[in-house]
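REQUEST ID: PR-0412
SUBMITTED BY: lab tech R.K.
PRIORITY: routine
TASK: structure prediction, single protein chain
INPUT:
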Amino acid sequence: METKKRIMVVEDDMNIGSIVLDSLEIHDFEVTLFRNGDDAWHKFDKKKFDLVILDIMMPKKDGITLAREIKKIAPEMPIIFTSAKSQKDDKILGFKVGADDYLTKPFEVDELIARINVVLRRNNKSFSNVTKEYAIGKYKFNINSRVLSIGETQIKLTTKETGLLEQLCIQNGNVLTRDIALKAVWGTENYFTGRSMDVYITKIRKYLALDPNIEIQNVHGEGYRLIVTEPNA
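STATUS: complete
OUTPUT:
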């Protein structure tokens, strides 16, 4: 039996939100509805959703801002924007932040469902057999196998270690903020998971110690930064 696709819908208009929710459930999707971007962000977990539908104009946190935050922790998450704003510049901005599609209100629910199916099919083809691998100094880091290797040495990482190191790699030398890391790997931002993350950072530093050109810096009050310097630079 095929698992239902799970969709996050973020829509502040109660009538539109209810119609979309009911229609998608009738078409056998599992739907979670949020009324504002802030609530959606606090409940977002990349492991719980297959696609996100965002209204652009929302209270507390607008759809563009929410999309940027989602893409930081889940770069491959498909996003469809819905908006009453039909200007070309608004659509371009939506695609620039990583949208897979943009639907102008008012829209027919049948059209939304058709676009959802197209985006889901496209993303399944794009990512189903992709091997994700990062080069970190002298190390190779394979996401799929959760293996960090250097020369003949291979280190099998836990799921959380893999997720945390992947987030550091995604930032590509920029600061990985604590809230983004906690949201991406643990799905929550509380004090106890924060302390747990510090322990995992210490472990990852030990794994990377065979290359002296690699450093995970503490950025006071913000988070961590993965730095790889060129030898003899």
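NOTES: The radius of gyration is 20 Å.
REVIEWED BY: pending
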